[in-house]
What does this fold into?
Amino acid sequence: MTGTAASLEENAGKDVLDPGVARSFMRLYLQGADPRQPLASPVFADLRGLPPLLIQVGTIEVLLDDARALAARGKTCGVEVTYEEWEGMFHGWQTMAALLPEGVQAIAHIGDFIRRHSR
It folds into this structure.
C-alpha cells in the first residue's frame, strides 16, 4: 500500500491496472492512515500462524513486486507459501478464463491448492 514498488512503473502500460488508478485506490482505502500498518500492508505484518498461502501474479502486473514481497514475508514468518508467476499475464487474468487458457490453468491450480490444504 505504499505505492513505491518498482513494478508499478516498470509494468505501466503493460498491465490492465494503471499505476495511477492503483495509487488512487490505495489512497481511498487508507483514508490518510499509515500505509505501512500491517492491516493495510501485510508485507509489514507478522504473518506467523497463517494457513498456507497461494499467491498467483502475472509477470506484467504493476503489483508484481508486491506479490513477491508478500511471498517472501510469508516464508520469513514460517508460512507455507505457494508462489506462482505467470509469464505475460496481467492483473486479474484468472477472471478471463472464458477467453484465456492461462485463466483456466490458474483456476485449476487454485482448486488443487484448496484440495491439498483442506483434507
